Known about the structure:
single chain; eight-stranded mixed β-sheet
Amino acid sequence: MEGAAPDPTGATAGLPPMVRAAGLVPPPRPASGRLPVSDVAGYQALYRASVEDPGAYWAEVASEMEWMSGWPADPALSGDLATGFRYFPGATGNVSVNCVDRHARRHPDRLAVRWLGEDGAERCWTYAELLDQTSRFAKALSELGVGKGDVVALFLPNLLETFAAVHACFRLGAIYNVIFSGFSPRALADRIVDTGAGVVVTADETFRRGRTIELKATLDSVLGQLPSVQHVVVVRRSGNPQVPMTSGRDVYWDELLTRTQAPADPVPVEANEPGFIIYTSGTSAKPKGLVHSGIGFMLGAYHNTKMSLDLGSEDVYWCTADVGWLTFPIFELVGATACGASMLACEGALDYPDPDRFYRVVADHGVTKVFTAPTLLRMLARYGAQWAQRHDLSTLRLVALVGEPLDATTWHWVQDHVGHGRLEINNTYGQSETGSAWTSSIAGVTPAKPGSCGLPLPGHAYAILPGGAADPNAGSGGSGGAGGSGGAGDPGTWPTIRPVPVGAVGHLVLTAPFPALFRSIWREPERYRAQYFSAFGPYCYASADAALEDPDGHVWVVGRVDGVINVAAHRLSTMEMESALLEVPGVAEAAVIGVADEMKGQVPVGFVTLAAGTDAGAAFDEALLSDRLVEAIGPIARPKRIYLLSTMPRTRSGKIVRRLLRDLVVEGDVLGDVTGLEDPEVLAQLRVELQSAPRPEC
């Protein structure tokens, strides 16, 4: 594995150790020829051109899709971040046509989706079958009164029917809202009340970790609070005959399609009209319903999937996320189908019934490319390499990631024990708001760096800015570090960006619109502008993430702005501290938070779990772990405490929920929203572990 090259100029001297230690790792295989670039120089030229004229760049991407009318659009881009933007105004098309119909016409027998149940059940659809189910379900929805602009709630797990339900809504021009199947009744009701959905599509039950999750019963428990709901469509997953069905309101999917034989024709949809709503999970504030343009999102997801994964007909591709998190729509439901990929979709946990379920799926189905979360990789490392050694993983060529920063220790563990040096590991970064992971390696083209989020993809202009309060002199246009910055309109009319120096941590902002960027907050347009376009002026989308850019142009997202700990006026990255803890032998997972301190303002508090088979008595030495932070970062990073935990609170998508650890340490109990947790029951266990932890000797 490559390390950092000697630096005779001293240019890296001021960089954080995790950045300074990371060397460029070239892709193990060359580009396939499907991509518009084949080397780094080509990427750099394409990126510069794309931010100088984003309208022209995205028009080139959009020309790969099928349009119904108004194409090519003139202008390709109107407006800007400050006043509102529109890509391809007046042009019409349909997402389902581009993701389903055009592949069913060309390759009707190509596998579209193979579904794997946690209990061993297996089903699959070709693109022809996906088109049949999609078009007939769209017709059924229209007969239930759903039309263009109406909202349909999808309270579904990962199922074949989930693909058809999403694309049926796209086909009608309806607006769908996918609701995470692990949400509580209250969280489910809040979202349906906010959208006013008239139809809910759900499943009877689903399975996770051997338990039955009663989805229809959860919905039934709140239907009395949902006056907008007129119809409920139920997919038979378990087939449990005891699931209650209300005549006149509830109907099974298969029965509905049996009596709906005619397909629905696709409805022309303007390029900027809303396609779906996805809610961010709330803590104390009301969850935000992010509104994405259907066609704009499709273009961004297609572009992202193509660049980051380079999917081809030879690939068997698997996105491990849950449909309730936007990763799955970006990288499978929409992005991968737009690429015509052959996909896997799995129910249940990836370490159940045994820790090697992930490896078994890869080996049994010849998976070539995976999109997952860093937490899954850390979980695999925690269980140990012996589980990987039981399976032939030779088909696996690429693992891409999003969700939270990936530490270098886990990067190398995966390369050594899963990929045996042949894997391309692509750590990306994006948000629900951006609708794509806009920093990423380009598969087979640009080198990776263990721990970084790669380079900005073409068509995405950004900057890393100082300060935290609104700055009337910070805007869009000008230069924004090695990645540059650009946008629509006349840059001469915009204030000048003053980015932080290379290597310094600052606020990550986006400085020009792109098609997948969300367009509003459902029913709260004022909140949209106030929350995202005020901190640095109306021409900058404020991500609320902290980042730095290294001398090679790689972006390192080091955490949320409020997750960067300010210790005695020193800004410390939680990611850097967590990476240092993960370098200690036996440590499998690490999380760091900041807590208030009278003298220093804030001080770090750490949490670790140990690898399977590790002797906690021998491996966990709080003083040694504290010394490791001091050694890696400096005395300013010495933590107030480091706790040994049996597990971490995490979402279904794998993110460690650090705010809950903060609640448990500071308040002694959990104050925030827990509905998105993988297993809320672990909180009681963690409360006991934290309260009973021995105090360190003074």
